[in-house]
Amino acid sequence: MTRIGVFICHCGHNIASAIDIEKVVEYAKGLPGVAYAGHNLYSCSQEGLGSIKKSIEDNDLDRVVVAACTPRTHEPLFRRACEQAGINKYLFEFVNIREHCSWIHAKEPEAATEKAKKLVAMGVAKAALLEPQEEGESEVVPRTVVIGAGISGLAATASLLEQGIETHLVERGDRVGGLLKDISMVGPEGICSRDLIEALVDDIENSPKAHLHLNSRVKELKGFIGNFDVIITKGDEDLTVKAGAIIVATGAQELQPKGEYGFGEHPAVITQLELERRLGRSGLAAKKIVIVNCTGSRQPGREYCSRICCNASLKNAIRILEANPEAKITILHRDIMSCGTTAEALYREASEKGVRFVRYGLEQKPGISTHGKSIKLKVFDEALDESIDLDADLIVLATPLVSPDDSEETSKLLKVPRDKYGFFLEAHVKLRPVEFATDGVFVCGSARWPVSARESIWQGQAAAAKASIPISEGKVRIEAITAEVDSEKCAACGNCVLACPYEAIEIVDDEGRRAAKVSEAQCKGCGTCVAACHNDAIQQKGFSSRQLGAMIDALARASTEGTQ
Amino acid sequence: MNDFNPNILAFCCNWCSYAGADLAGVNRLQMPPNVNVVRVMCSASVKPEYVFKAISQGIDGVLVLGCHIGDCHYLTGNHRTAKRIPLAAKILDKVGIDSRRVRLDWVSAAEGEKFQKVVTEFVEEMRSLGPNPMKEVRF
Amino acid sequence: MLLERVDNPGKLRFDVPYQMAMILTKINRFVKEGKIAIVARRCDEKAIAELVKRDLLDGSRLELIGLACSAEQVEACRCTDPCPSRVDIGQPSEPVKDDQNFAGMLDMSLEDRLDFWINQFRKCNKCFGCTLNCPVCFCDECLLEEKTFAPDKGIPPGLTFHLIRTVHLADKCVECGECERSCPVDIPLLSLRKMVNRDMKKMFNYVSGDPERMSPLLTTLEGDPMEDDPNVC
C-alpha cells in the first residue's frame, strides 16, 4: 500500500476564498492510499515547502500530491522539494485547483469545493500508480546557433562569443543589421545605428569562434537540448552543425499598408521605414509632412500596439525640424505611447518644437484626396470635436512591425508556437522570458513582439545568458516522460512506427522476436504512439494507461458515490 | 434550464489547451464547474479506450482539447487526434450513445476565452442531453 | 494444415471457414524459406493485405490461389465483395446489395439501439472466440484480458470490451464474419463491424484490405505517407 501525502494549498485567498480547504483535506484523508493530508497557506513559500518536507519525513510518505496552482509553472519547485526529502521527483503529482477551479468558479464556493475534491481524488488515484523514473543525462555540445543577424541576433552572438562559446550566426540576407541597417539613428537618445552594428560586428569578426553564414537559411532542426542537429543551407550547399542551444532572432518586418491612405498609388505616401531611409541618405525636400500613427494597427484583426512607432514618429519629427525649422509637421495619432523617462521628454521636445498633434479615432479615420502633387487630408480632431483640413506634400504612415511572411514556416521548422499575429510565444512571460517551452531553444528581439533596438539588445543578451547555462553545465537531464515498449507484449504491427511524428520508433529483430524499440534520445514524449498501440505494449512514462485509467475510474466513482 | 449537473472529463494537452485553461483562470473567466481536466502531453496520446472507459462508467461527456492543426507542439500529433476521436464518437453512436457526448476541439495557449466558451457550451449540451444512460445500465 | 506436397488436391476442402491469415503469420515466422501457396477467398486476400502492410507477413513469399465463394456462402456472409482479384477455383458470384441500414439498426432511436446492444453484449461470456478467430487480430496478448480497460467485473465484461474491439478493428476489418460465426451467443458482431467500416469509408475514404493505403488513423491529415514513399508497405 502506498503512503500518499496530500497537501492542499490556500494560495492566500486565491484558492481558499472559493474552496473550503478543510473539507477537501478531510475528504483527501479518506482516499485510498492516503497516509497524510494537510494544508498550507502558501505551499510554494519556503515555509510551505519546509512543512511538506517535514511531513514526508514525519509520516514516512512515499508519494506526494500537491493541490495548488498549475504544474506549468510550479511543478519543478515541488519536485525539487520531494527530491530533497528523499522521494523520486516522478512520485509527485500536481492537482490544479486554482486556475482550473477556484479562479473560474469564484462565485460557486460549494460547487468549487466539490470539484476540488474530485480533482484531488483523480490526482491521488494517479499518484498511487506513479513509478520512480530515472532521468537520462545527455552531453551538451558546446556550440550555439543564432538564427537572424539583426541587432538582437548580433547582440546575442557577441555575448555568447564573449563567454567563449562557439557560435554560428545564420542570416538569410547578404548583410547583417536587420531592420536597423535602414535606420540611421535610433531614438530617443539619438545613437548612430551604424556605430551600434559595427561595434557588434567587430566583436564577432575578431573572434575565432564565430561563424557568420550570410545568404543562408536553417533548413532543418532536429534533436533536443544539448544535442541539436542544424542543417544550414546556402545555395545548393548544406552544412550540418551540431549545437547545444538555439537562439531564434528572426525579427519582424514593417507592414506595407497596401491601399491605406493611397499607399502604393501616390508616390508621396510612404512608410516610416522609407522615411528613415530618406533621412539617412539625403535629408528631406518636403515641407508639409503628416505622419499617421497606428496605420494598420490597433484595429480589428491586428489589435496590438507595435510599441516603437510613436517614438520613431517623435524622433523623426524632431530630426526633420532640426534640419529644416520651417517644416510643418503634424502627427495624427490615436494615443501617444512614449513611456519611460527619455521618450516622454522626446514628446515634450517635439511639442515645444512645434509639432502639431491631432488625435483621431478609429471610427473616423482620416480621409485623403490627391490632386497632382498636392495631398489633402480631412481629419476629425477629437479634441476640437470638428473636422480639420490639412495640406501635405509627404505622408508618412507609421505602420506596425508584423511577423515575417515565413514565420509559419519558421515555427514549424523549429517546432515553436506562435500567437495569433504570428509572433513567437515564449514559455512564460514572467517566469521564463526569452525561453521557448522547448528546452534549449530561446527567442529574442522582434520575433516575439515588436521591440526597440535597445530592447532587442537586452533580449539578445538575455537569450545568450540563458543559452549559456546548459553549455556551461556541460550536461542536461532529459525529462523521463518518453515512451517505452514492453517487448514481450509487442505484436510488432508497426502502428507506433507510423504514428510517431519524430520517426523515433523502429521494429527490431531480437533473435527472432520482433518488437518496437523507442530511441530515447529522439522521443519527445508526446504519447502519439501510445494511443496507436492496440495492446498497451507501449506506454508513456508518467502518463501510463493504468494511471490515466485510474483517474477516469476515480472521476466516475466520485460521481456515482459522491464526494462526502 | 434543468438542474442536472453533468460530470465531465476533459483531456487537455499540456502545451495548448491546458495552458489555455490556465489563462482562463488567470483572467478569472467564469464557467460551470462540471469539467474536470486531465493533463496529457499531447491530445494524440488520448486513447479511444479512455473515451470508452469514461462513457461506459457513466461519465456524462468527454472533451478532448488539443492544439490547433499546424500548431501541435509535436508537429503532427494532433493530426491523429483529429481522426481518432471523431471515430470513437461515431462508434458510440453505433451502439446507441449520443456521439455529442464526445467532443474534440482546438484551444491554443492564448485562447482562454475559447476554453471558457467550449466548456460552457459543452456543459449546456450535456445538460440538455441529460444523464449518460450507462449510469443506469448494470452489466 | 500445412502441405508441403499435395498428392491429392481433390480431397482438399475449401468450404470450411478457417482462420488462415493468422496461421500464415506463424508459418512466416517459423518456416524461413520458400514460397507459400494459399487458397484465398476475397476476405482472406484482404486480411493478408492488412498483415503484409504491417510487415507481419512477407508478401513476396506468398502465392495466392483465388477461390470464388459460392452464392450460398456470399449470402451467409452478407458479403459485398466476394470475388478475389484472381479466380482460380470456383465461379464468381454476385455480391449482396450493400445493406446500409443493417436490418434497421440505424432506424432505431438511440435509446432502443442502446437497449438492443446492451442486451446483446450482456450475453457475452468473454470466451474471446471473436478475437481468436479474427484474421487481423494480431496481438499475442490481448489488452482485453487485462483490467485496465475491461474492469474485472467477471462476465459479461461490460460495454468497453466490445467498443475497444470495435475501434481496434476499424482500420483493418475485412468483413469475413468469423467473429460473428464463432460467437457462441450470436452477438451480431459482423453488423457492428460493417457499420463502422461504412463510417471509415465516409470519414476517410478508407476501405480495409486495400494493399495500397495505410490506416488513416496513423497518418497525418495532409496525405498518405505512401504517396511519398511507396516502399512503406
Description:
The complex is a heterotrimer of chains A (564), B (139) and C (233). Chain A contains 16 helices and 30 strands. Chain A has 564 residues and is an alpha/beta fold. Chain A has 4 domains: 4-134, 3-Layer(aba) Sandwich (Rossmann fold), CATH 3.40.50; 143-252 and 403-476, FAD/NAD(P)-binding domain (3-Layer(bba) Sandwich), CATH 3.50.50; 256-401, FAD/NAD(P)-binding domain (3-Layer(bba) Sandwich), CATH 3.50.50.60; 483-540, 2-Layer Sandwich (Alpha-Beta Plaits). In chain A, helix 2 (21-29) runs parallel beside helix 6, helix 9 runs parallel beside helix 10 and helix 10 crosses helix 11 (341-352). With 139 residues, chain B is α/β, with parallel strands linked by helices. In chain B, 40% of the residues lie in helices and 17% in strands. A 4-stranded parallel sheet of chain B has the order 2-1-3-4, sandwiched between helices. In chain B, helix 1 (17-26) packs across helix 4 (112-129). In chain C, 36% of the residues lie in helices and 4% in strands. Chain C has helices at residues 20-30, 42-53, 71-77, 110-122, 129-132, 159-169, 178-182, 189-204, 225-228, and strands at residues 36-40, 62-66. In chain C, strand 1 (36-40), helix 2 (42-53) and strand 2 form a beta-alpha-beta unit. Classes of the chains: A alpha/beta (564), B alpha/beta (139), C mainly alpha (233).
Radius of gyration of chain A: 29 Å
Q: Sheet bearing the most strands of chain C, described?
A: 2 strands, parallel
Largest sheet of chain A: 5 strands, parallel
Tally of strands of chain A: 30
* Total of domains of chain C: 2
How would you state the average pLDDT of chain A, rounded?
94
Low-confidence stretches of chain C: 223-233
β-strand percent of chain A reads 25-35%
Number of discrete domains of chain A: 4
- The CATH superfamily of the largest domain in chain A is FAD/NAD(P)-binding domain
Can you give the helix content of chain C as a percent range? 25-40%
Span of the ends, CA to CA of chain C: 28 Å
Number of strands of chain C: 2
**Sheet with the most strands: spatial strand order of chain A:** 10-7-6-14-25
Quickly name the level 1 CATH class of the largest domain in chain A: Alpha Beta
Derived structural class of chain A: alpha/beta
Kindly name the structural category of chain C.
Answer: mainly alpha
- Please mark out the parts of chain A with pLDDT under 50 across 5 or more consecutive residues, or reply none: none
